[in-house]
Amino acid sequence: MDKIQLQSEIQYKAVRSSGAGGQNVNKVSSKVVLSFDLKNTKGLNEEQKQLVTTQLQTRLTADGILNLSCDEDRSQLRNKELVTKRFFELVKKALIVPKERKPTKVPKGVIRKRIKDKKSASEVKKNRRKPDF
């Protein structure tokens, strides 16, 4: 992952946001929308692109563009910093390869205990029957 290359490929757009700001909210575009074209990036190799695409499949558009937005702060600059930080954390987390699960066997002691319990339950039920003369 080439962080500098990814940083240069990010596109920002400022839009009006809802929330705190009073009358100022109608005049100032403080919400920042980050767009990143995952298919055409040069900051990730093909294997990494595939991994990120599968991990972030629900967040991507049909064209393979990742959109993130931030309107937590009244400052456009602070929102830009927050959304960029969030983007890099998201990509970093998506690049982690999950461990392959090794199927485990049922321990022999557990099997023996189950059979022993079944036999004892069977004996209890046998003892409840009327005696056969």
Automatic annotation (TrEMBL):
| Entry-linked InterPro entries | Pep_chain_release_fac_I, Pep_chain_release_fac_I_sf
Which keywords label this protein?
Hydrolase
Protein known as:
Aminoacyl-tRNA hydrolase
EC no.?
A: 3.1.1.29
The region called Disordered is annotated at 112-133
- Stretches of Basic and acidic residues bias are at 118-133
Q: Which family does it belong to?
A: Belongs to the prokaryotic/mitochondrial release factor family.
Keyword set includes Hydrolase: yes
Query: Which organism is this protein's natural source?
Result: Flavobacterium erciyesense
* Chain ranges of the Prokaryotic-type class I peptide chain release factors domain: 16-32
What Pfam families does the annotation carry? Answer: RF-1 (PF00472)
Stored PANTHER family = PEPTIDYL-TRNA HYDROLASE ARFB (PTHR47814:SF1)
Main EC class the enzyme belongs to: hydrolase
Q: Which GO terms describe its molecular function?
A: peptidyl-tRNA hydrolase activity
The source's superkingdom equals Bacteria
